[in-house]
Every structure is written in structure tokens, then in C-alpha cells.
């Protein structure tokens, strides 16, 4: 008799060195089984064996498991608020603004920030954009910055013409180098990593919905512990922080929270 999912999960998290218990287990099981069907894997024993001994499958598992959907200017009203309300205040108060996108997925979110700051005329010497994700495969895609049209549905024609070039086959658009070099990418496991300090804006959009309540609570505390007083925490539109005041946060607009310290 082969191992069950709980046994698989407990062994897989040690091999992968990620805390699978921090994610909603029904999602972990569902994603695992869908990948097993794709690879015609018969049971959890075989799946675990491949994770142990096949580096390509191990990467495929992490890639399938992590959250890799994103688009430019997702929920445009939030980025308008960022441009008209948040950024002007931050750059008025700070000589240099530190921004962290975590997780960053395919890079469309941190690149959106870079485009906004470029359009605002903010000098690159006055900000740093740091973007992290667990999946090194998606980070490679983010660094290449080549996107299909569905990732650009909220991008205006003006911005598209100014910062993107259509590929030779007409299937994708490549972001300009002047925007790409404004973002620094790094692989990071948000659940296990020790966070760097001194952030004025942290974006963690559409990540908490996949986490358990306890892990969400732990991560909010981790993120706020590295936010500067007066800094901002930006979530996805379907994510909410109940009783934000217990984390030192004040909700100011839709999914924006200000950290009072």
C-alpha cells in the first residue's frame, strides 16, 4: 500500500525545503494531483521519487505549485491611487523610496511600478524596486520581460507604443531595457526567509488567498516588521486584513493599508 497525501506532503516539504503546511492543503493536493495527471504519474510514491531524483520534475512541481499569473496594471484603479496619492506622499517625505513586490510572478507588477515612476518623471536614483518569487523559472521569464497580449489588456496604447516592442512573430511584446533595468529580481521563499528591512511600500497581491489563517497572520507580522512607519502595504482586491489595527495598519483605500508603527 502506497503513501497517502499527508505522508507525501510531509516528505515533499523536506525535499523541497518549503513549508507546505503554510498553504491551504486542499490547494496543495489539488495542484499535486493535476500535475500527476499531466505526467501520467500513478501514485504519490512515484511522484515523491521523481521529486527526489529528477531535477526537471522537481522544478516542474515547484513551477506548477507556485502562483504564476499576473498582468500589467491589474485592477487599474489601485494603480491610479498609487500614482496620484501614495507615490507623491512617499517621494515628498523620502529621499529614496524602497519598494518590494513579493511574490512578483512574471514581473508584470514590479514593471508596472517602474513604468508609473518613469512616467511621473522620478529619477531612478530616488527609488529601488526589489522583486522576489519562490519559482526560479518564473523569475527567468520575468527577467526576459516578454509578454502575451492577455497580460497587457490594461496597458494603454500610449504606454504600449512607448515601452514595448512587438516580437518578430507578432505573438508577444518585449519590454524596453530602460524599464527592465529598474527592477532587481531575486529568488526568495517568503514563508521561510528572513526579510530585509527598510521598505516604504510592499506589494503582496493575490498570495494570501492561498495561505492558511495562521500563516497569513505570521506573514502579515513579518511584512509589517520590515515596513518603515508611514509605509504602505498593498494587497490584492479579494484579500482582506481583519482588525488591521492589531498589526499597526490602517486601511486607506480598497486593498491599501498604511503602517503607523
Summarize the helices and strands and which ones pair or pack.
Elements: H1 5-16, H2 25-38, H3 44-53, H4 55-65, H5 76-93, E1 97-101, H6 108-120, E2 127-133, H7 136-144, E3 146-147, H8 157-163, E4 164-166, E5 173-175, H9 177-180, E6 183-187, E7 199-204, H10 213-225, E8 227-235, E9 249-253, E10 256-259
Parallel strand pairs: 1-2, 1-7, 2-6, 7-8
Antiparallel strand pairs: 3-5, 4-5, 8-10, 9-10
Summarize the structure.
It comes from Halanaerobium saccharolyticum. This protein has 261 residues and is an alpha/beta fold.
Helix content bin: 40-55%
Indicate the CATH class of the largest domain.
Answer: Alpha Beta
User: What number of structural domains do the residues give?
Assistant: 2
CATH superfamily of the largest domain: Vaccinia Virus protein VP39
Shape: globular
Average of pLDDT: 92
Strand order, biggest sheet? 6-2-1-7-8-10-9
Q: Please name the CATH architecture of the largest domain.
A: 3-Layer(aba) Sandwich
Q: Number of helix segments?
A: 10
Gyration radius, in Å:
19 Å
CATH topology of the largest domain: Rossmann fold
In total, how many beta strands? 10
Order of helices and strands: HHHHHEHEHEHEEHEEHEEE
Q: Key terms for this structure?
A:
10 helices, single chain, Rossmann fold, 261 residues, three-stranded antiparallel β-sheet, 43% helix, alpha/beta
